[in-house]
From TrEMBL:
One of its GO terms (molecular function) is N-acetyl-gamma-glutamyl-phosphate reductase activity. It comes from the Bacteria. It is found in: Cytoplasm. This is N-acetyl-gamma-glutamyl-phosphate reductase. The lineage of its organism: Bacteria, Pseudomonadati, Spirochaetota, Spirochaetia, Spirochaetales. Residues 4-105 form the Semialdehyde dehydrogenase NAD-binding domain. Its EC number is 1.2.1.38. GO terms for cellular component: cytoplasm. Pathway: Amino-acid biosynthesis; L-arginine biosynthesis; N(2)-acetyl-L-ornithine from L-glutamate: step 3/4. SUPFAM superfamilies: Glyceraldehyde-3-phosphate dehydrogenase-like, C-terminal domain (SSF55347), NAD(P)-binding Rossmann-fold domains (SSF51735). It holds the Pfam family Semialdhyde_dhC_1. Belongs to the NAGSA dehydrogenase family. Type 2 subfamily.
Length: 318
């Protein structure tokens, strides 16, 4: 029996990527909505309630509306918007963070897919907090770069316009008022008392992301070294299919002494790179903002939810 899947908002970047990852899957039946009815509440309600799994690839308010349209108690909803990420009644869709996250995903009918920047941030901060390397009041700061696809259709059109503004040739920092929409989940899921200082940049390449967090050893309650922090992360993510901790710098981990942000583009992989020295330890998480940071994470959660191999549809490039 094929599971019935509806993607509400499939015309957007994330929706299209999710659909692409379903190619050649014989265990899924994709429910189609007519183009002229894709914003029709009655038709969306019919398809949502006819599905086994509905993906929401919509702005926050539209996602909340779609949830309200669901009256079938058997329907499982995966929301890729910001709307439900800090709602304790929803599972947070990052199974590698902890076994409790994976178990809640497996049992839940409501899953909030993490934000792309938040995925990289939490892949670092969650273990730092879990193992007591930093305390909840640590002044976390974060620097991150992303391809322009993270800005959605409008940004893609702007960057791919042949008559575009020359400023787009360079990285551009944004969220200058420190009010980025991912901050609530970064703080709450990360177990922090305060929101981090977060400096994201949008850059002139399509997809891929690198999120970096520095740690000052002198501010830690317990002495840590570069190697001791690396050992904690290597143990925490040991055996994970999609999240890998690379060997320490200087051990042949990188071909060149640079960390590229698009090395994992079009995959569901995430790599954590730990570098620096015993005084200033840097932790970087790189992945595809459209993969492990969006569509790939959503499909991975669906696989866990349905009890199929979590790698299904996620091992190749898309």
């Amino acid at each position: 029996m094929a599971y019935k899947i509806f993607i509400d908002g499939r015309e957007g970047t994330t929706g299209l990527k999710i659909l692409g990852r379903f190619k050649n899957r014989q265990d899924l039946e994709i429910l189609q909505i007519d183009e002229d009815k894709r914003k029709n509440p009655e038709e969306r309600q019919r398809l949502i309630n006819s599905s086994d799994v509905t993906f929401l690839c919509l702005p926050d308010e539209a996602a909340r509306e779609s949830v309200s349209l669901c009256t079938n108690p058997e329907v499982k909803i995966l929301d890729t918007s910001t709307a439900h990420r800090v709602n304790p009644d929803w599972a947070y869709g990052f199974p590698e963070l902890d076994s409790t996250f994976r178990e809640k995903i497996r049992k839940s009918k409501r899953i909030a897919v993490p934000g792309c920047y938040a995925s990289g941030f939490l892949s670092i901060v969650y273990p730092l907090r879990k193992y007591g390397i930093i305390d909840s009041g640590y002044p976390v700061s974060c620097h991150a770069v992303s391809g322009y696809s993270g800005g959605g259709k409008k940004a893609v059109a702007q960057y791919e316009d042949i008559n575009r503004n020359g400023e787009l040739d360079s990285p551009r920092q944004y969220a200058l008022t420190q009010q980025h929409k991912h901050l609530p989940e970064m703080k709450i899921i990360g177990g922090l008392d305060f929101e981090p200082v977060f400096n994201p940049y949008i850059c002139d390449y399509f997809n891929g992301m690198a999120v970096t967090i520095p740690v000052h050893s002198r501010l830690l309650g317990k002495k840590q070294t570069l190697k001791s922090v690396w050992e904690v992360f290597a143990t925490h993510y040991q055996g994970c299919e999609f999240v890998k901790v690379l060997p320490l710098m200087g051990e042949g981990v990188l071909e060149l002494p640079y960390i590229g942000a698009n090395n994992l583009a079009d995959t569901n992989k995430m790599e954590i790179i730990i570098y620096g020295n015993d005084d200033r330890i840097c932790l970087c998480s790189r992945f595809d903002n459209l993969g492990k940071g969006a569509s790939g994470a959503a499909v991975q959660c669906m696989n866990i939810l349905l009890g199929v191999d979590e790698k299904t549809g996620l091992t190749g490039k898309i």
